[in-house]
TrEMBL record:
Domain spans labelled AAA+ ATPase: 240-371, 534-671
GO MF annotation terms: ATP binding; ATP hydrolysis activity
Cellular component annotations (GO), alphabetically ordered: cytoplasm
Pfam families listed in its UniProt record: AAA (PF00004)
Annotated source species: Peltaster fructicola
Alphabetized PANTHER family for the sequence: AAA-FAMILY ATPASE, ATPASE FAMILY GENE 2 PROTEIN HOMOLOG A
The name this protein goes by in its record: AAA+ ATPase domain-containing protein
Source organism superkingdom: Eukaryota
Length: 763
């Protein structure tokens, strides 16, 4: 019966709580819902929020046959549950009953503009008198208590207990036996709270937010300041530092946090602005800003939420300077008021400096690109209502979705769900759709014409369908379509590769032990050699496929350092100025996450020798920024830059000067011993017996990547032989690998090796 949608309309305002929780419905609506006047009902909002009300017959006409019937509610009821004017709700009979309260806890939230008088120990008596005889109250109820001569305070119902305890949402009422308390400290939180919603007052509901626990903690701290009474000794007298700027890349959850803030219970007024709204004339902007903040000040405690503030008040933008000053002036007026301003931006540097001064948006809260743990939390939340195979799918995906933001992961899950549906419901030209009346919610059912006899046959086919689930196969397809929108270079994450994964890397590991591990393990000894300075940069060069990237990853994982991977080509393809900004951001991240290795792959794409032309000018700016950062982080400990290139001769000479990339490590084609180690890694666990010795000579001159490609080809040949021969047990032979070596294209030439040798002599 609760499948009918109603639109929320507001009843005329009244200062009394009498009848505040009545839901006024048309007589025919009450009859349809099987509700009588005075029955308790459950109200369910668009976002799933539940509230409780008392069914009541509307005294006035409900309109001229509207398409959506109105449900008229008082402002008290709407504020208690967060039902907005004009939104849609569903109403159904409640499973709870109206019961007397054994305990009611109140929090004072008197606005600054009220004449609160002095505490005369009679406010509890006044509150009891105000609530006595009230038909119903709920957690979240806000009401004013007068004391004569214009003096009054505002209180918030924070906690209600009944005997026995009831499931939320519920309504209750005060009796002579009810223990009413006014909490001494607004920060106090009862341990046995029975709330009308899933969130506490002045607290962000984190049920639909994952991976941002520290950020939520900071925002909730600021919300608690709003609920602290003006007379409370624990409340700071100056609240200028309460405001905050939330920043982060697109898709990290900035707007999600603002939406969650807008739903916080206990806030009297929430006003929102978007940067795009403040791109008009100066007079229009001033009018909009003033009216917004005046509205917030008039209804404390309140929130001012400004999305994309960097659009309207950009850094070093003459056109938006005036808007920035207007916003700063408006925020200044709220310093002593219980008005919290939260703004969002892509970066702190993108916001006009006027707004970042003390007392304004001084506090910054970063929303980072989620790491593996954060991604796993987000995926668990997104997949909480899905059946997954395997069950640890979120953890597996979390480990392989580097660079994905929360928005990316949402798109990934949506796309995988679509692929899962397609897999579970294959299309066929031989099948047709038939519609069953009053069956399976009137969905089209697929049945073969030759098998259709009646509706029961089709229904049986549907019931026999396997249980739908999302598998890794669906996500593998989705990963090809949904790519990470965040810049790859801001990911801070320890890689999983070790030197054991790189065949023949014993000497290489010993070299890095001397460069990195010795100064750490033997600090006292190293301090005696004044000439030993921490390495700033190491250049890895050599032919393609010779484990330069794997070496950088192995260095990070072996010594437990964080790892920032940068694709040089991605940087150079950005808009003018973005490349330089991205490089500065990389080094900022590295300092914060130290010990950190910054790995520039394909560094030749951003640091080539300078020639003439526009591209050369752009490259010069990038190189200059990179060198400034490398020269400037001398005091930053435990930050090492590794760079890889296939074309060392094309690098700008400034990059190779002393104090930058001092050490040049050549990673050439593996020698015989290294090839043996690589082959051992390849054949590990393979079916059959493979003799490695004849393969060593045949694979001479191949890179490690080419040997692995040859092994992949050998596996395909063995698989083909097993399938065509109807074999049930696979068997690989030495001949398969020999064929794989012959079929693999080699890219390393003699001229290439000579060029590397020449570079080694010069450097």
């Amino acid at each position: 019966m609760g499948d009918i949608a109603f639109i929320v309309r507001t009843l005329p305002a009244t200062a009394s709580l009498k009848g505040a929780f009545r839901v006024h419905l048309a007589p025919e609506t009450l009859q349809h819902l099987r509700l009588k006047v005075g029955d308790l009902c459950t109200i369910i909002g668009e976002d799933g929020t539940s509230g409780a009300g008392i069914a009541w017959r509307a005294a006035d006409k409900m309109g001229n046959a509207p398409k959506i019937q109105p449900a008229k509610m008082s402002e008290v009821l709407r504020d208690a549950y967060g039902f907005k004017q004009g939104t849609q709700v569903r109403i159904e009979a409640a499973a709870t009953t109206l019961r007397p309260a054994t305990r009611i806890a109140l929090t004072e939230i008197t606005p600054v503009g009220y004449e609160a008088g002095v505490d005369d120990d009679r406010w509890k008596v006044r509150c009891v008198a105000q609530l006595a005889g009230v038909e119903a109250i709920a957690v979240g109820t806000t009401f004013d208590v007068p004391a004569g001569e214009g003096i009054k305070k505002r209180f918030f119902v924070e906690h209600i207990e009944t005997e026995p305890a009831q499931e939320v949402p519920f309504l209750s009422y005060l009796t002579d036996h009810t223990d009413l308390q006014i909490l001494d400290a607004a920060l106090q939180s009862p341990t046995t709270t029975t709330s009308t919603s899933n969130q506490r007052p002045f607290h962000i509901d984190a049920a639909h937010i994952a991976g941002l626990s520290e950020q939520l903690k900071q925002l909730n701290l600021r919300l608690r300041l709003l609920c602290t009474a003006a007379e409370n000794e624990n409340r700071p007298r100056r609240l200028g530092a309460k405001n905050a700027l939330v920043y982060g890349y697109a898709g990290t959850g900035k707007t999600l946090l603002l939406d969650s803030l807008a739903k916080v219970h206990g806030i009297k007024k929430v006003v929102r602005l978007d940067g795009d709204q403040l791109l008009g004339t100066a007079s229009k902007n001033e009018s909009l800003i003033n009216s917004t903040f005046q509205e917030a000040i008039a209804s404390q405690p309140s929130l001012v939420l400004i999305d994309n503030i960097d659009t309207a008040a950009a850094s070093n933008d003459v056109a938006t300077r005036m808007t920035a000053k207007m916003l700063a002036k408006a925020i200044d007026k709220t310093n002593s008021a219980r008005v919290l301003t939260i703004a969002t931006a892509r970066s702190v540097a993108g916001v006009h400096e006027t707004l970042c001064e003390p007392g304004r948006l001084q506090r910054t809260i970063e929303l980072p690109i989620p790491d593996a743990g954060g991604r796993t939390q987000i995926l668990k939340l997104l997949l909480s209502s899905e059946t997954c195979q395997p069950v640890d799918l979120p953890a597996e995906l979390g480990a392989m979705t580097h660079g994905y933001t929360g928005r990316d992961l949402t798109g990934l899950v949506d796309t995988a769900s679509l692929y899962a549906y397609e897999r579970m419901n294959p299309e066929s030209d031989d099948w047709v759709s038939i519609h069953l009346q009053d069956s399976i919610a009137s969905r089209p059912i697929k049945s073969h014409p030759a098998d259709i006899r009646n509706a029961s046959i089709a229904s049986t086919l549907v019931e026999a369908a396997p249980e739908p689930h999302i598998s890794m196969l669906d996500f593998e397809k989705a990963l090809q379509e949904i790519r990470p929108s965040a810049l790859r270079e801001i990911i801070v994450e320890p890689p999983k590769v070790t030197f054991d994964d790189i065949g023949g890397s014993g000497a290489l590991r010993a070299q890095f032990d001397r460069l990195i591990n010795w100064p750490i393990q033997h600090q006292a000894l190293a301090a005696q050699f004044t000439g030993l300075q921490p390495k700033r940069g190491i250049l890895l060069y050599g032919p393609p496929g010779c484990s330069k990237t794997m070496t950088a990853q192995a260095v990070a994982s072996t010594y437990g350092w964080n790892f920032l991977a940068v694709k040089g080509a991605e940087l150079i393809s950005m808009y003018v100025g973005e490349s330089e900004r991205a490089i500065r951001e990389i080094f900022r991240k590295a300092r914060q996450a130290a010990p950190t290795i910054i790995f520039f792959d394909e560094i030749d794409s951003i640091a080539t020798a300078r020639t003439g032309g526009t591209d050369a000018s752009k490259s010069l700016n990038v190189v200059t920024t990179l060198l400034n950062e490398m020269d400037g982080f001398e005091a930053a400990k435990d930050v090492l830059v590794l760079a890889a290139t296939n074309k060392p001769e094309s690098l700008d000479s400034a990059i190779l000067r002393s104090g930058r990339f001092d050490d040049h490590i050549y990673l050439g084609p593996p020698d015989s011993d290294a090839r043996r180690e690589i082959l051992k890694i390849c054949v590990r666990g393979a079916p059959g017996v493979i003799d490695l010795e004849p393969l060593l000579a045949q694979s001479e001159g191949m890179s490690g990547a080419e040997i692995k490609n040859a092994w992949r080809t050998a596996c395909e040949l063995a698989m083909e032989r097993a399938v065509l021969g109807s074999q049930t047990i696979a068997n690989m032979t030495t001949q398969d690998m020999e064929a794989g070596i012959r079929m693999t294209t080699r890219v390393i030439t003699t001229e290439m090796l000579q060029a590397y040798e020449e570079f080694g002599r010069r450097s």
